Amino acid sequence: MKILYVEDEIFLGKIVKETLESRGFEISMVTDGAHAIAEFRKFNPEVCVLDIMLPHKNGFEIAEEIRVIDPMVPILFLTAKSQVEDVLKGFGSGGNDYLKKPFSMEELIVRIQNLKNLVGKKKEVSDAVSLSTFTFYPTKQELVSSLKEPIKLSFRESELLKVLAENVNQKVLRKDILMRVWNDDSYFNSRNLDVYITRLRDYFKNDSGVEIITLKGVGYLFKVEG
């Protein structure tokens, strides 16, 4: 399991990192909040473990940015704070769990595994996404409509639609789509994105309940009615 671990206490971080690695986890540790999002995009973790009090950008801010990129990845906060308002702020910023310092490594490991299992079950349940008269099956890369024959999607088409479907009726930044689908926001891939958006629009053209709206200079709004 790949874990992004953001912690500015070097001694504690070294102990946690080495212990988790000894249990078979792959850890990328970041000590400055300013570098967390760049490492998240590069490392593509399955779980994020975030300290809250960090230099330059705190754990709450990092979590909010992660949620824009990936609504599903589990986030566990580690903190010395235990006030009710801090706990609520943690969940409000997109956290899934909260562990107070000092903590035992065994409890940390159990919580990480539980979060991974929980999100895995959610993904299984949501593998059929309803989009107006269409149903999107990400695993099968298939778009099924009650009005026409099933459409077999390419890998890129499916990944792009997956990002849009995770953000129904919400703004999705063009750069975030490029980094999620292509892992790169170069001019060449940006032109590819235009082509794939056109293809998806063509698939949905007979359904007035689904629309991909271009937000010029920003990204897209995936509008789904019903």
Describe the fold and architecture.
By secondary structure, the chain is an alpha/beta fold. Helix content is 43%, strand content 23%. It is built from eight helices and twelve strands. It has helices spanning 10-22, 36-43, 59-69, 84-92, 105-125, 155-165, 174-181, 187-203; strands spanning 2-6, 26-30, 47-51, 75-79, 97-100, 129-131, 134-137, 142-145, 151-152, 171-173, 210-215, 219-224. It has a five-stranded parallel beta sheet with strand order 2-1-3-4-5, sandwiched between helices. Strands 6-7-8-9 form a four-stranded antiparallel beta sheet, with helices on one face. Helix 1 (10-22) links the parallel strand 1 (2-6) and strand 2 (26-30). Helix 6 (155-165) crosses helix 8. The radius of gyration is 19 Å and the shape is elongated. The relative contact order is 0.09. The model has no long low-confidence stretch (mean pLDDT 87).
Task: Looking at this protein, list some descriptive labels.
four-stranded antiparallel beta sheet; alpha/beta; 23% strand; elongated
Uncertain segments: none
Which sequence of strands runs across the widest sheet? 2-1-3-4-5
How big a fraction of the residues is strand?
15-25%
Major sheet attributes: 5 strands, parallel
Tally of separate helices: 8
Helical content band: 40-55%
Element-by-element helix/strand order:
EHEHEHEHEHEEEEHEHHEE
Q: What structural category do the secondary elements indicate?
A: alpha/beta
The N- and C-terminal alpha carbons lie at a distance of 37 Å
The quaternary state of the protein chains shown equals single chain
Looking at the structure, what is the overall shape?
elongated
Mean pLDDT: 87
How many strand segments?
A: 12
